[in-house]
Amino acid sequence: MDVKIGALSNLRKTDWDDQLPFVTYKKNASIHSATRQLPFEMMYGRLPILPFDHQDDNVTLSYDSTYVNKLNQFLSKLNEQAKINIIRNQERYNNAMI
Question: What GO molecular function annotations does the UniProt record carry, in alphabetical order (predicted)?
């Protein structure tokens, strides 16, 4: 279900640009119908963190020399799966049109 910017705006629709970041984030944090992936995850290689998600008080950072390679492999797999899902959707659509 898409959120319309106008529905979030004031009655005179003069603050639609204030709502744009929220609508954009919602769209990027929702599963896309064709790719069946989260656009956010496909872009950043991780799930989005929402304000109400539990966060640990202590954050530890560690160095992983292979992180870039792991991230690239993960993103490649996501992109390949997205391509497969798009092709399946296109085939399903084309078969429905026949």
Answer: nucleic acid binding
Question: Cβ(21)–Cβ(7) under 8 Å?
Answer: no
What digits encode the pLDDT tens for the residues 42-85? 999 999 987 788 777 777 878 888 999 999 999 999 999 999 99
Model confidence pLDDT, tens digit, residues 1-35: 455 777 777 777 788 888 888 888 888 999 999 99
pTM score: 0.64
Dist. CA 24–CA 3, nearest whole Å: 10
Question: What is the C-alpha to C-alpha distance for residues 48 and 25, in angstroms, rounded to an integer?
Answer: 9
How many CA atoms are closer than 13 Å to the CA of 84, on its beta-carbon side?
7
Q: For residue 65, what are the CA distances in angstroms to 7, 36, 62? A: 47, 31, 10
